[in-house]
Design goal:
Elements: H1 13-27, E1 31-36, H2 43-53, E2 60-66, H3 71-78, E3 82-87, H4 96-105, E4 113-117, E5 134-140, H5 147-150, H6 152-157, E6 160-164, H7 176-186, E7 191-194, H8 203-214
Parallel strand pairs: 1-4, 1-5, 2-3, 2-4, 5-6, 6-7
Helix pairs in contact: 1-4, 2-3
Bound molecules: magnesium ion and zinc ion (ZN).
Length: 216
């Protein structure tokens, strides 16, 4: 005789904490963007410039994920925003439980927008839900224009993509139209922002999008 299982899907511990985080953010009416990319694409530099450019308009807080060190949280604080550092001690992605405890350490009531800077890794963070409002991918020009085709998961799931270090386009073989076309094949609705966190190029459109998203 066969037994048929019915009833609700059993959630993993990560999914349960992700649901709690999502509920917390909804109740407090806060937006939360989970930033995912390879190491060295410039996530922290993008955040630092975003915080500076939106000073007085959007109050930003950051949850920093790294395997070790407090270096990135210190860079965010130097830019003038609240930051909580999580060290995963070897793990290659943030868990929803880690984000749950970090949210309790941020002055959430005083913020409009919370960024999570995930551990630098283009693969596995895209499948660990943290309860965020949306995912934002970052791809930097020196990494190569073939990355969306080779690592499609994050590009298929993200609401926005920043193509960073466009100031290096002349120096490397990166076909930005190819990269954009490959991303659009995976995700028709994604917003793509070519930027340079170094020169500030493209930050107007990106910051306007954040203003729109937060209703500011
Ligand atoms: Mg970083
Ligand atoms: Zn991982």
């Amino acid at each position: 005789m066969y037994k048929v299982k019915v009833g609700k899907k059993i959630l993993s511990a990560n999914e349960e904490y992700a649901a709690l985080n999502s509920q917390f953010l909804t109740e407090h009416k806060k937006l939360c963007l989970n930033m995912i990319s390879s190491p060295g694409s410039g996530k922290t530099a993008i955040l630092a410039r975003t915080i500076t450019e939106l000073k007085g308009k959007i109050r930003i807080g950051v949850i920093e994920g790294d395997i070790q060190t407090e270096i990135d949280a210190e860079r965010i604080r130097a830019a003038g925003a609240a930051a909580v550092q999580i060290n995963t001690d070897g793990a290659c992605h943030l868990s929803a439980l880690q984000v749950n405890s970090a949210l309790k350490k941020l002055p959430v009531e005083e913020l409009d927008l919370i960024f999570i800077e995930n551990v630098g890794n283009l693969v596995c963070p895209s499948t660990f839900e943290l309860g965020e409002t949306a995912k934002v991918a970052v791809l930097s020009v020196p990494e190569g224009d073939d990355k969306p085709a080779k690592y499609p998961a994050i590009f298929a799931r993200a609401k926005a993509l920043l193509i960073n270090k466009v100031d290096l386009l002349e120096a490397v073989d990166f076909d930005i139209e190819r990269a954009k076309a490959d991303v659009m094949k995976l995700n028709r609705d994604i917003k793509i922002f070519p930027v340079s966190a170094k020169t500030g190029q493209g930050f107007g459109d990106w910051c306007n999008w954040l203003l729109e998203l937060t209703g500011k």
